[in-house]
Automatic annotation (TrEMBL):
It holds the Pfam family TAXi_N. Residues 1-21 form the signal peptide. InterPro entries: Aspartic_peptidase_A1, PEPTIDASE_A1, Peptidase_aspartic_dom_sf, TAXi_C, TAXi_N. One of its GO terms (molecular function) is aspartic-type endopeptidase activity. Residues 131-471 form the Peptidase A1 domain. Coiled coil: none annotated. Belongs to the peptidase A1 family. The active site is at D149, D356. It comes from the Eukaryota. Keywords: Aspartyl protease, Disulfide bond, Hydrolase, Protease, Signal. This is Peptidase A1 domain-containing protein. GO terms for biological process: proteolysis.
Length: 475
């Protein structure tokens, strides 16, 4: 008991000294040392800031940025360029906004002003996904490093046998169903198989060579795909914590780019999702904490906050859109402690903000973005604004070379119910010296709450109770 209190205290003390250490933020500004936040990151993984209620730690899975030192070493591959990361983020955002609005808005393509409507049956590219978790699959459990995705539902891993033409090279051995005593394909004649087609994850029952199997297929907008056999297995989340009837795609036909991860775990709101599949055990709730920096660890946890004790969380209503996406309503933004003058009607025109683990930069409809940019720029006049670079897509970047510290205005977002979250300074606001927000399109567009803004919060998706919680300083 004493030990666990000490543990929490150490973590809280570290957190507060980081968040409030440089200067006081009474006036809406925080001074941070550039050596801590804007220079190449530590090569060692730090887990010291993870702050999880011990009573909630049952289905707790360590989470890491896939290109950082906390990712399992077999998975670390070189980080794509900043421009490339932003391009991937924008492509994913376009897909989500198009789907979330059910095709009622067309998103703008990257390079020109042509409208692109993304057909609803195409999945979002997984290239942009940056956070991985390690789970155990099968019996005996084999560790699999999978991308975490709140923007899709169907989990999948590459399965043996699969030659180097049909599967991409991953660093871990392929998952081999023949070596697991609990593996089974899902029969055609089941509700689960029939649902695949309805949820755009393939054709369901396919007859080939005298037999039939439940086939899944995820087709992506760039023409690539992931296909294989819809299957069930035992999934191990943590030592002794298993999901007996985990549904996933055993993929033996891949096409397209990859970064050598073993697969993906889908946490969206459709029936294929791990969250929905396990709702009788975990109550249709999950949470994660994305760390402030890539050299730090975070966590993914299944299950909600104990209903008796939601202290530390603030909650806003949430709805599930298009079966998959989690949507909240943004109602206000403040910069440097001052509420921006954005009429409520501007926010209510939008169809809401999708909270997404895979989009990097937050997408705001036009009027809200313009107001934020103007206020942020006027609070940052001490630093040279870099000239616009169309390749980046973000337009408020600073050259912080030569500054030993930077005084950054606080940015707070307010959601329905008056719930305010103060973004981490600077790691929840700035990415490589750039304001981690961009313009999504006209005010009618949906927005997306990207993963930079979510850093250090435990974000709790309580799907059964229709609410999202935020707890500051969770990692
Ligand atoms: C894109 O769509 C908008 C709204 O539907 C329309 O006003 C605009 O002209 C379109 N742009 C192009 C290049 O087609
Ligand atoms: C790889 O497997 C696929 C499908 O099983 C097959 O069509 C292809 O010929 C194989 N390629 C090689 C190089 O063995
Ligand atoms: C199939 O989808 C329906 C509608 O979303 C859902 O209620 C049902 O539980 C699903 N069945 C299975 C076996 O996933
Ligand atoms: C609720 O959690 C907080 C820490 O988040 C703890 O200090 C408090 O004692 C807990 N209350 C109950 C009733 O368990
Ligand atoms: C968000 O706003 C829309 C339109 O103003 C409303 O219909 C919806 O109930 C609100 N709440 C959520 C959680 O979407
Ligand atoms: C950033 O500032 C440094 C120091 O003032 C300067 O040497 C460098 O050229 C600037 N970089 C850019 C991209 O403007
Ligand atoms: C920030 O840097 C300026 C100039 O380099 C220096 O005068 C000031 O003391 C520094 N502030 C903090 C809090 O380190």
């Amino acid at each position: 008991m004493a030990a666990s209190h000490l543990f929490v205290c150490i973590i809280l003390c570290t957190y507060y000294s980081v968040a409030h250490g440089g200067d006081d933020d009474e006036h809406g500004f925080v001074t941070v040392l550039t050596s801590r936040s804007f220079q190449p990151e530590a090569a060692e993984c730090s887990t010291s800031r993870v702050n999880l209620e011990p009573s909630r730690a049952t289905a707790f899975v360590p989470l890491a940025h896939r290109h950082g030192p906390c990712a399992p070493s077999s998975q670390t591959s070189e980080m794509p360029s900043f421009t490339e990361r932003l391009r991937r983020s924008r492509a994913r955002a376009n897909y989500i906004m198009s789907r979330a609005s059910k095709g009622t808005v067309s998103t703008l393509a990257d390079d020109d002003d042509a409208n692109v409507t993304i057909p609803a049956h195409l999945g979002g590219s997984v290239d942009s996904l940056e956070y991985v978790v390690t789970v155990g699959l099968g019996t005996p459990a084999v560790p699999q490093v999978v991308l975490m995705d709140t923007g899709s539902d169907l989990s999948w891993v590459q399965c043996a046998p699969c030659n180097s033409t049909a599967c991409y090279p991953q660093k871990d051995p392929l998952f081999d169903p023949s070596k697991s005593s609990t593996y089974a394909p899902i029969p055609c004649d089941t509700g689960a198989c029939r649902n695949l087609t309805a949820d755009d994850y393939g054709d369901g029952c396919v007859t080939s060579g005298g037999g039939s199997q439940c086939a899944f297929a995820i087709e992506y907008g760039d023409g690539s795909h992931t296909r294989g056999v819809y299957s069930k297995e035992t999934l191990t989340l943590a030592p002794g914590v298993t999901v007996e009837d985990f549904h996933f795609g055993c993929a033996d036909d891949q096409d397209g780019s990859n970064d050598r991860y073993d697969g993906l775990v889908g946490l969206g709101g459709a029936p294929e999702s791990l969250v929905v599949r396990t709702s009788s055990v975990y109550g249709g709730a999950f949470s994660y904490c994305l760390p402030a920096q890539n050299s730090e660890a975070g966590f993914l946890a299944l299950g909600g906050a104990p209903s008796a004790n939601t202290s530390g969380f603030v909650f806003t209503p949430m709805r599930v859109e298009v079966a998959t996406f989690y949507v909240v309503n943004l109602t206000g933004i403040s910069v440097g402690g001052k509420q921006l003058d954005i009429p409520p009607a501007v926010f209510s025109k939008s169809t809401g903000m999708v909270i997404d683990s895979g989009t990097v930069v937050t997408e705001l409809p036009n009027t809200a973005y313009s107001a934020l940019r103007t206020a942020f720029r006027s609070a940052m006049t001490a630093y040279p604004l870099l000239p616009p670079n169309d390749d980046l897509g973000v337009d408020t970047c600073y050259n912080l070379t030569g500054f030993s510290n930077v005084t950054v205005p606080t940015v707070a977002l307010t959601f329905d119910g008056g719930v305010r979250i103060d973004l981490d300074v600077p790691n929840g606001i700035l990415l490589e010296g750039c304001l981690a927000f961009q313009e999504a399109g006209p005010d009618e567009f949906p927005g997306i709450l990207g993963n930079v803004n979510q850093r250090t919060f435990e974000v709790l998706y309580d799907v059964s109770h229709g609410k999202v919680g935020f707890r500051a300083g969770a990692c």
